[in-house]
Amino acid sequence: MAEEKIRESSMSDLWNVWFCELHRKQAGLNIKVKRFLYTGVSPFQEINIIDTYEFGRMLVLYGSIMTTERDEFVYHEMITHVPLGAHPSPRQVLIIGGGDGGTLREVVKHPDVERATLVEIDEMVVSKCREYLPTIASAFDHPRARVLFEDGEKFLSTTRETFDVILVDASDPVGPAEVLFQKEFHETVFARLSDDGILVTQSESPFFHEKTVRALYRNLRGIFPIVRMYHAYVPTYPSGIWSFAFCSKRHDPFERFDPDAAKWPGIRTKYYNAAIHRAAFALPNFMNELVEGPPRPR
Ligand code: SPD
Question: Most buried in the list 9, 93, 160, 234, measured by CB within 10 Å?
Answer without folding.
Answer: 93
